[in-house]
Amino acid sequence: MRSKWIVIAGAVLAGAVLTGCGNGSGAPSSGGRGPAIPEPRPGLSGGSAGQRPEVGPEQAGRIATDRFGGQVINVEPDHARGAPSWEVEVRDSSQGRIEVDVSRGTGEIVELERDSGD
């Protein structure tokens, strides 16, 4: 009886080893020519597969001025709608002097506030 369990355990182990021989993507193996090169994934820029790179302060300023025009006065870390963002202060925009919150994760404009102290 004991040898029967050893044979079953060996077969399970061999199956696990053979399953791990692919490239992990579910795609066919590269045929022994080295590791398969993963397809690039869409994102903002760079970053590792499966992760979106964080939007930086300069990019947040460009996002705000591309949308509303004007000149960036200041960019500082903030939180909007419960998520990290950049508060971009812009003067001479199409909306006057404004503060735009740009999501650090997605680059979306999540809040816009007109500054009354122009």
Provide a descriptive summary of the structure in words.
The protein folds into two domains: 1-39, no CATH class; 57-114, Nuclear Transport Factor 2, Chain: A (Roll), CATH 3.10.450.40. It has helices at 2-19, 57-68; strands spanning 71-80, 83-93, 96-103, 109-114. Helices cover 25% and strands 30% of the residues. Strand 3 (96-103) and strand 4 form a beta hairpin. Strands 1-2-3-4 form a four-stranded antiparallel sheet, covered by helices on one side. With 118 residues, it is of the alpha+beta class.
Question: Can you give keywords for this protein?
Answer:
2 helices; Nuclear Transport Factor 2, Chain: A; signal; alpha+beta; 2 domains; 118 residues; PepSY; 4 strands
Provide a quick synopsis of the model.
The chain has 118 residues and is of the alpha+beta class.
List the topology elements.
Elements: H1 2-19, H2 57-68, E1 71-80, E2 83-93, E3 96-103, E4 109-114
Antiparallel strand pairs: 1-2, 2-3, 3-4
Protein name: PepSY domain-containing protein
Organism: Saccharopolyspora rosea
Domain PepSY: 56-111
In the CATH classification, which architecture of the largest domain applies?
Roll
* CATH class descriptor of the largest domain: Alpha Beta
**In one word, what is the shape?**
globular
Strand order of the largest sheet: 1-2-3-4
The biggest beta sheet reads: 4 strands, antiparallel
Fraction of residues in H or I helices: 25-40%
Oligomeric state of shown chains: single chain
* SS content category: alpha+beta
Count of spatially separate domains:
2
Number-wise, the strands total 4
Q: What is the CATH fold-level name of the largest domain?
A: Nuclear Transport Factor 2, Chain: A
Pattern of helices and strands: HHEEEE
